[in-house]
């Protein structure tokens, strides 16, 4: 059985989610797929520093995180610690490649792009390499000549890669991989009486969601609000205590961690959330306009700019949410226009095309190897 390696990391939810979606799709095509987090393979301490470090910076010190993101997008960080981490990762990943002898390598985090590229250059590893860009503007760390193909979330992501010097023929705007359940289209119940809002972003903390919900209660029209708290049990319990039975003409459903997000999106008119790459992709595939009242500086700021400029989302202060929802209810043409704009972005999105690309790359490399054996050189 042909083997595929997917390298990922637990810095945010999106990278692992994209990796797992690809794993499932490739396994359905009879490939053996291993998703590996090299930082965990090296040491728990390194993995904790990377995953928890991201969480602390992004949520507790967002301005610092945004500054570091911006600096690293324009210059390479060449300090001794960075070089030591890269060399350690190279040794670990090279040994993993030797052990498993994959026919294809995929990475869903940019920290591995240059590492794998160096291995290909220095060790002569001839394996096709796909990089999945999990945000809507490509960071400089994604760019490398040894990447055979990029999977991009949109034509805007593709343009950002081209501007950084990547050959456009190597970039495919097939969409950030999400679970196939999100690609299943269900007809919305147009006769429902309440405008339905899906409110997400539990990772932003208790106050952000509480303030958003409080402002939305100012809308005069009947609303159904589905609040997904994720693993934030503190937030869930707090909201249940206050809004568990709804309020006036507002139906409020408080949900913890759930795998039923596709179904909740099917019945929602808009989503209010922070713009993480995977959440954005899931919303776009489900054709739900987004309202963005909070984001983490760095890639989520860039995602916000792309979405607003494309006319598929509205940026908002929390205190403006009720006004925006009222406008959308009173002007359904505005909401419909946003939905049409979403269809324009997602017209190239395809899980099947992503899988076909992976299979074709493996076949191309195998044909080249066979010709070398047959004719020499």
Automatic annotation (TrEMBL):
Domain Glycosyl transferase family 28 C-terminal: 196-344
Principal location listed in the UniProt entry: membrane
InterPro entries, A to Z: Diacylglyc_glucosyltr_N, Glyco_trans_28_C, Glycosyltransf_28_UgtP
Domain of life of the source: Bacteria
Pfam families associated with the record: Glyco_tran_28_C, MGDG_synth
Subcellular location: Membrane
Keywords annotated in UniProt: Glycosyltransferase, Transferase
Diacylglycerol glucosyltransferase N-terminal domain location: 15-178
One Gene Ontology cellular component annotation held by this UniProt entry: membrane
Single Gene Ontology MF annotation: hexosyltransferase activity
GO BP term, example: glycolipid biosynthetic process
Family: Belongs to the glycosyltransferase 28 family.
Protein's name according to its UniProt entry: Processive 1,2-diacylglycerol beta-glucosyltransferase
Species whose genome carries this gene: Natranaerovirga pectinivora
């Amino acid at each position: 059985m042909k083997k595929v390696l997917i390298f990922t990391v637990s810095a945010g939810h999106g990278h692992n989610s994209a990796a797992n979606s690809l794993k499932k799709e490739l396994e359905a095509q009879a490939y053996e797929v291993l998703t590996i987090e090299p930082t965990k393979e090296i040491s728990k301490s390194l993995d904790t520093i990377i995953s928890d470090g991201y969480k602390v910076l992004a949520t507790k010190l967002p301005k610092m995180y945004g500054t570091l993101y911006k600096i690293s997008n324009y210059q390479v960080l060449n300090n001794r610690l960075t070089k030591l981490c890269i060399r350690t990762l190279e040794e670990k990943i090279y040994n993993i490649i030797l052990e498993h002898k994959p026919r294809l390598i995929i990475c869903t985090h940019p920290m591995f792009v240059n590492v794998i590229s160096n291995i290909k250059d220095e060790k002569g590893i001839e394996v096709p390499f796909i990089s999945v860009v999990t945000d809507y503007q490509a960071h400089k760390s994604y760019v490398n000549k040894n990447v055979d193909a990029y999977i991009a979330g949109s034509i805007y992501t593709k343009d950002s890669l081209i501007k950084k010097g990547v050959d456009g023929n190597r970039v495919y705007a097939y969409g950030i991989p999400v679970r196939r359940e999100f690609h299943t289209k269900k007809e919305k119940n147009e006769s429902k009486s309440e405008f339905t809002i899906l409110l997400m972003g539990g990772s932003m903390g208790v106050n952000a969601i509480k303030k958003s919900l409080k402002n939305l209660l100012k809308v005069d029209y009947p609303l159904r609000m589905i609040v997904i708290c994720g693993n934030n049990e503190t937030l869930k319990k707090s909201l249940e205590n206050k809004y568990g039975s709804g309020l006036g003409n507002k139906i409020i459903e408080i949900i913890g961690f759930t795998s039923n997000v596709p179904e909740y999106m099917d019945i929602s008119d808009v989503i209010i959330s922070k713009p993480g790459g995977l959440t954005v992709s899931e919303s776009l595939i489900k054709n739900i306009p987004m309202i963005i009242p909070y984001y983490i500086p760095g890639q989520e700021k860039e995602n916000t700019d792309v979405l607003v400029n494309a006319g598929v989302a509205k940026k908002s202060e929390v205190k403006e949410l009720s006004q925006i929802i009222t406008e959308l209810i009173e002007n359904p043409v505005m909401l419909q226009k946003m939905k049409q704009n979403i269809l324009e972005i997602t017209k190239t999105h395809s899980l099947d095309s992503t899988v076909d690309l992976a299979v074709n790359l493996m076949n191309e490399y195998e044909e080249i190897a066979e010709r070398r054996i047959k004719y020499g050189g």
